[in-house]
UniProtKB/TrEMBL annotation:
Lineage: Eukaryota, Metazoa, Chordata, Craniata, Vertebrata
Subunit field text: Part of BBSome complex, that contains BBS1, BBS2, BBS4, BBS5, BBS7, BBS8/TTC8, BBS9 and BBIP10. Interacts with the C-terminus of RAB3IP. Interacts with CCDC28B and ALDOB. Interacts with PKD1.
Entry annotated with the keyword Metal-binding: no
Protein name per its UniProtKB record: BBSome complex member BBS1
Residue intervals of the Bardet-Biedl syndrome 1 protein GAE domain: 478-580
Length: 585
């Protein structure tokens, strides 16, 4: 046990905020967040729908402290459980509803109390006729298979489980299957995919609550808490997988449902169809309501925040896929956050889009439950992929900062600007732009063309006068200007070259001059440029002799090239002044 506690201490990063109360790596508890909850059975107990190995050992377990108080065998895998109050009779003992297959098993005082069965669905009449013909031996099994395959592809009402199983059989097994089932009536039954709880007429914690269930065929039922009759039915475009319920049935309620088609639908009272729809970029794997907002975890390692009307508020990017999500609610402190279990053995705590705490776990967390347990208000209960059970207690001195601990842009960047309201002048200007859109566009295009023409003329003038020769290559940012000194016939030509890059030096460059050899002669017509450090000015001097006495001048072209390349990086034209004398040879 000491090695286990030592391992837990090494793996816990948030030890300053959490106490490690219990860790059992071999608890053999395999469940999800939808199948774990707390119930006040004389005292506060932990109720878990244990999936076991998936085939056997499927049980309903009740924990008191860290030990198992009772176990009840379940006939099928549970899809969810809730603890709710059925009536006002004393003593006020809550019941436990476990959804499994098409049934809801209700337990009271840890004993089976009631079993609710979903209503049967409508059976395809053509399917009934086909099986009636098979019953009277009017068709053989192969003909039955062909007719059922045709119905499966074209019928609006899906086939029953019996017909689907028949189509999966080998030809030699079909005859025995037909003889075994042809005398039995055809039934089409759906199954429960998610379950929730809705207060009946009061918002108190000990108020009577209704059960809300989602089914595979896309229906949502609200059940009476005492008679277990269907009070209300709503329909969805797809099968629901996650559900969150708030409000009261007799007043106003909202049911937020994540469906298998990747969308989230919001159902309201007196509306059998979804009121709002949120289209996600990837399928949801977790759904938590925090205040008036909905937080959704998706398969693409993202966490999204939405309003209850479907408006997107923020997005947070996660380091690993989401495995489970739960709400952390501390009413005594007025604090709420979202707990997100990740596949990298971490549990992140988010308040809005800000990551405020991280908990390291020894294994991947598959279910999270936070609330009062025993005498502690802030108890975090987690189960792991390997069947372990982790219990942590929040320290009473723990303080969570709203500052985001994850790297990224500051919080101030996500604060919305206080944009002023539209004034009458703004509205009038908008109307004027709408009415004169064509004329304003033409005027804009005319001014833009004139601006381009003026810029082109200025550029040509600069090239002709060599005022601002700049490199046209983005890879070699160079700047060069030329200064001619003297009255003639000897001139001093100075080239000032500068590297305009921010931090990268330029090397392996050379300068070449092109001129009329009948008019001018140069002592050196080719230079190698030293390494150019950014920001420094490098002057290069040479002398030019004028050979003509006719009082004429010409242009000397300057090329900056990279050694071994023929294409110049920079070109400048230098207008030489008229010489006032003749060169002495």
């Amino acid at each position: 046990m000491s090695s286990v506690s030592h391992e837990l201490k090494d793996t816990s990063v948030a030890s300053s905020k959490w106490l490690d109360a219990h860790y059992d790596p071999v608890a053999n508890l395999y469940t999800f967040s939808s199948c774990i909850g707390e119930s006040l059975l004389h005292e506060l107990h932990l109720v878990v729908g244990d999936l076991g190995t998936g085939v056997c050992n499927v049980k309903l377990k009740v924990y008191r402290g860290t030990g198992v108080l009772s176990e009840s065998t379940l006939l099928d895998l549970p899809t969810g459980l809730v603890s709710f109050l059925m009536d006002l009779h004393e003593p006020r003992t809550p019941a436990i509803a476990v959804a499994s297959g098409p049934f809801i098993y209700v337990y009271k005082n840890l004993r089976p109390y009631f079993k609710f069965t979903l209503p049967s669905l409508e059976v395809n009449p053509l399917e009934q006729d086909v099986w009636s013909q098979a019953k009277e031996d009017m068709i053989d099994p192969m003909t039955l298979k062909e007719m059922l395959e045709g119905l499966r592809d074209k019928a609006e009402i899906p086939l029953s489980v019996r017909s689907l199983r028949f189509l999966m059989l080998e030809p030699q097994e079909m005859e025995n299957f037909v003889l075994l089932h042809k005398e039995q009536p055809i039934r089409r039954q759906t199954v429960i995919t998610c379950i929730g709880m809705l207060k009946k007429n009061m918002a108190d914690e000990d108020a009577v609550s209704c059960l809300v269930i989602g089914t595979e065929n896309g229906d949502v039922y609200i059940l009476d808490p005492e008679a277990f009759t269907i009070l209300y039915k709503m329909s969805l475009p797809s099968s629901p997988t996650l559900m969150d319920v708030t409000g009261q049935f007799d007043v106003e309620f909202r049911i937020t449902v994540a469906c298998r088609n990747g969308n989230i639908y919001i159902l309201r009272r007196d509306s059998p169809k979804p009121k709002y729809c949120i289209e996600l970029s990837s399928h949801p794997v977790g759904l938590v309501r925090m205040g008036k907002n909905v937080v959704v975890g998706c398969t693409h390692e993202t966490l999204h925040g939405y309003t209850q009307k479907g408006k997107k508020l923020w997005t947070a990017y996660l380091p690993a896929p989401v495995t489970t999500m739960a709400l952390m609610d501390l009413p005594t402190r007025g604090f709420q956050a979202v707990l997100v279990g990740l596949a990298n053995c971490e549990v992140h705590m988010y308040r809005d889009k800000n990551l405020i705490s991280t908990i390291k776990t020894p294994d991947v967390v598959t279910s999270i439950c936070f609330g009062r347990y025993g005498r502690e208000d802030g108890t975090l209960i987690m189960t792991t992929k390997g069947g372990g059970l982790i219990v942590k207690i929040l320290k009473r001195t723990a303080v969570f900062d709203d500052r985001d601990s994850a790297p990224g842009p500051p919080i101030a960047q996500s604060i919305r600007l206080n944009v002023p309201k539209k004034t009458k002048l703004y509205v009038d200007q908008t109307l004027r732009e709408r009415e004169n859109a064509v004329a304003m566009h033409r005027a804009f295009q005319m001014d833009l063309s004139r601006l381009r023409l003026a810029a082109a003329r200025a550029y040509v003038k600069a090239l002709e006068s060599s005022l601002t020769p700049m490199s046209a290559s983005l890879t070699e940012p160079l700047k060069m200007n030329a200064v001619v000194q003297g009255l003639g016939p000897s001139f001093k030509l100075t080239l000032n070259i500068q590297n305009t890059a921010s931090c990268r030096p330029v090397m392996n460059l050379a300068i070449s001059f092109l001129y009329d050899e009948n008019l001018y002669s140069m002592r050196t017509a080719f230079f190698k440029i030293p390494l150019l450090v950014p920001g420094l000015n490098y002057p290069i001097d040479t002398f030019v002799e004028c050979l003509s006495d006719k009082g004429i001048s010409d242009i000397i072209k300057v090329f900056v090239l990279r050694e071994g390349k023929s294409a110049p990086l920079l070109t400048a034209h230098i207008n030489m002044p008229v010489s006032e004398g003749l060169a002495l040879n």
